[in-house]
Design a protein that fits this description.
The complex is a heterodimer of chains A (about 700) and B (about 325).
Chain A: E1 2-7, E2 13-18, H1 39-44, E3 59-65, E4 71-75, H2 78-83, E5 87-92, E6 96-97, E7 103-109, H3 112-122, E8 125-128, H4 149-152, E9 156-164, E10 167-168, E11 176-180, E12 188-192, H5 197-208, E13 215-218, H6 234-247, E14 251-254, H7 257-263, E15 266-267, E16 270-278, E17 284-294, E18 315-323, H8 338-356, H9 360-367, H10 371-384, E19 401-412, E20 419-425, E21 431-435, H11 444-456, E22 463-467, H12 483-510, E23 517-520, E24 523-526, E25 529-533, H13 534-539, E26 545-551, E27 565-576, E28 581-592, H14 599-618, E29 649-655, H15 673-685, H16 696-707
Parallel strand pairs in A: 2-29, 3-14, 12-13, 17-18, 21-22, 28-29
Antiparallel strand pairs in A: 1-2, 3-7, 4-6, 4-8, 5-7, 9-16, 10-15, 11-12, 11-14, 16-17, 19-27, 20-21, 20-26, 23-24, 24-25, 27-28
Chain B: E1 5-7, H1 12-21, E2 27-30, H2 34-42, E3 49-52, E4 64-67, E5 70-74, H3 79-84, H4 86-91, H5 93-101, H6 105-108, H7 113-118, H8 124-127, H9 166-172, E6 177-181, E7 187-189, H10 190-193, E8 212-219, E9 224-229, E10 240-249, E11 252-261, E12 268-269, H11 271-277, H12 285-293, H13 306-323
Helix pairs in contact in B: 5-9, 11-12, 12-13
Classes of the chains: A alpha+beta (about 700), B alpha+beta (about 325).
Amino acid sequence: MSSRTRSAAAGFDVTTAVSDIRPANDGIAMDTDTSRLDGVPKIDGSAKYGRDVLPDNVAFARFIRCPLGNAELLSADADAARAVPGVVLVRMDRDSANYHGRVVGLMAADSPRALDRGMRALNMQWKPLDAVRGIQDMDFDDPSEQDNQALARADVVLEAVYTTPVQTHCCFETHGSVVDASAADGTVEAWVSTQGVQGAADGIARALEIDRSKVLVHADYVGGGFGSKIGGGGKEGATAARLSRDLGRPVWLFCDRAEEHLDTGNRPSSRTFVRVGATNEGRITGGFIRTAGDVGISRGGGGVSIPSGRYDLGSIDGDHRDVKCAGGGPRPFRAPGKPQGAFAEEMMIDELATQLDMDPLQLRLGLERSDERRRMFQRGAAAIGWDKRGDTKTAGDGGVVRTGYGMGSTNWPAFPSQSEAEVIINPDGSVVARQGAQDIGTGHRTAMGICCASTLGIPLRYVTSETGKSNQPYGPASGGSVTLTNTAPAMEAAAAKALERMTTALAEREGGEPGDYGVTEGQVLRDGAPIMSWEEACGLMPRAIRGEGRHSPRRGGGRGGSGHSDGVQFARATVDTETGVVSVDHVVAIQACGRIVCRKTTESQIIGGVIQGVSYALFEQRILDGQTGAMVNPNMEWYRILGSKDMPRIECFLWDHGATTVKPIGEPPTIPTAGAVACAVYNAIGSPVRSLPLAPHHVLAAVAAGRNGGGA
Amino acid sequence: MNPFQIIRPETYEDAAAVMSRGDFSLPVLKAGGMDIVDHLKEGLMEPDALVDVKRVRRGGGDAIVREDDRILIDAGATLAEIAASPLVTASAPGLAMAAGDAATPHVRSVASAAGNLLQRPRCWYYRQSQYDCLKKGGDRCYAVDGENQYHAILGGQSCHIVHPSNLAVAMSVLDGRVHVIGGDRDSIALGDLFQMPSRGVRREHVLESGEVITHVSVAAGPNSSYLAVKHKQSFDWPLVSAAASVQMDGGRIAAATVCCGAVAPVPWRVPNVDAALVGVDPEDSAAMTAASELAVADARPLTQNGYKVQLLPVAVRRAVRMAAGLPAIAEDRR
């Protein structure tokens, strides 16, 4: 393994160790350190996001929402709102609502300021009602009466309840759309902050009941998604589209920061009861695992992924309940159900290890079902310095500031999706790579450019990479970590087809067979010897050459499919036992990445997953008011998200081992982080913190309970 | 937000005149604008004029100067200027720590000394318009039966806000004063600047509407400190904080002044702690702990903030140690 260190601009160190860097297809080096193609426009402001788009004569729209967790609307002065200069529409749809942020009406105006005044004039009066509380205080039915053979075979039994809070979606660019359905010819143009530009076009066409071919959606730049922007443009897109048609002018409808917290989906909370046994040899015999999740007013979606299937937990008798409460409902959130399950599962294993007097690493090596992850565990343990880890049992005797170590694992399947791509080689040598998925910050635009350039054998500077429009070749919604795994084969096929047409034309003109010709580093070769530059060869073409590619995998990852991605993470954390403040010092993230198209953006995906996981572990929490059911922290002040001083050193290991396919890495790196951090805190203080976030009051309670011989 | 005029006076005297002349129904002074903009956005304040003193300075000289045994700081000096000032760092280190610990580099480069002192509390019921709480003229404090994990454990009466200013806590132990024009007094001791909710729940300070802070001042001295316990280390408010200044005599504390932040509606002085620290060797952890525990002798936590009762003595003990020139924590890491 080679290793290198660089200092990232963000001020934290990233060490990358890469196994076996080697050219992938036919000697084409794919493993590049390319900076993202759209990095500079994003920094200098020239990149235009959906919410930056302000067509002439645009109307600004905003949902009217319930400000309490459950309430009856006594009055709303719609006439007064309509009378405000600049207000063009006031519509009330409901006179009650059962969660904070629920839409009860719609308002539109010529300017945001007029909209503000209209909202003020509406002067809604609400009568608060009792809000439905969720799983916060629920008890599980006691399974003790039931006969359980797995527990009977066990030498030790752990019983614990683990809880995680609701993590809200709060994308940097809030949810919303700008739609212009006013054109006389019936065409509709929309700028949508979406994870699925193709689905957004479908959704807007459906909302307007028009042909999809009439709709053009742009998502050139998208300020974050994480699962909540998959649904076809969402209600913001559909509402803006209908309103634009009704008003005969473009409509801008974006959530503000509070709306973003309240009503754009979330990772549901979880409550996991475990009563699980193990033998002195370190085998888990099984037992009961019961889970529940808050789903707000939704019908479902609160699942908790435990057992994960990564460890042999014996015979588990499990069930799950989705519990309604006064709150916005779940939406897919970067590995739905997985981080909450992994938190409970990894903590359960560490607590059993303490009871068994075993090193949790050794216990996991025995429970682990994957040889690959077992090797990763050994590599990660060396990288984090596991040999410096103290015994959890004696941690309570340590000083004021204590250090602990924890670990966790992850995996993710490859989901197949059809993809198409197009490559155009112009006579001047410039190339267009076109692929109609979207870059939600993941580096898709960059990856497509690299796939195209490397297949053609030319430097990336020749390639203009276009993505994020619904009239481009079909690409999947970016959810489930499917984008690059399915679009890379399509783009490479398109580039290969274009290259084949070019070498055929060259052979017709210069003689020989098409197979005699090749391109490397911008030089055209014949029988392996350079004969002309890329530009010269392109200049010989009478017109632009087009290549098209399609990827149609079978379920389970067919030809060119992506394969399963495994990973492990280790965390070192420091706990001030007098204040309960936790600092995560170091995270080692090992992730199977398969073939690496762009190393830098791959690392960024993993680092981002770890950052989001640390933030989830330490800070994030939707707090609903016990009296009104309203969220008291729908902002970036009290809804804490990790900042630069809270950043650990993150060390990525891109685990390769000769894979020839691209593996899914969007979601898996965020799964194990919170569990690993919680295990590190447990190891540091000697008693478990079984509730996220690992906030001072939770940690202090655990420290106190440890002195009294229990957990918190 | 409602339309308003922006007035840019050249001097504090002009600002005071605008504020008291009666041309506007609700003129509001603005320096960095950090807190004002939050209020405007949430509709908590509807001024018809913002009197912008951001670029006003007392004289042509430095924003921070020493006069005899006091350090004078322009009202408009930014937190970043205070934190970086060699004068403050050397002669009022606790104040430099308090300024440097606030918010983010971006905020510190904009937020002013006077604005930091006079910012409104961060209580989430106060800050959101749908709660008609006492501070907004309503009839109840929602924190009592609500989400009160960040509210007051000391001095809570009708309203359970905690005072938000870092600088006020640090200045309280440095004989801090605010210097004003536009009224019938020249200066106000920091201990008299803020009022408890029982004296007026709608506002937190006692300045009259025409009074404008021109500068603040603190006593110069080498032994002071400020320490905040924060959940997040970037851009977060203290869960509790403490400032201390001490005079040492042969390894023992001869005199101490301690003030606590984020635990009460005003910067919370603890004279019982001050008295108990006299004669204590700051390396004597038992004596230090005993004295620090007195800070919460009168604590009456709400339903969710009992942890602050545990945190505050820790912050006090560490702040006193730092003021005495010792590391905040006595023990080494495991």
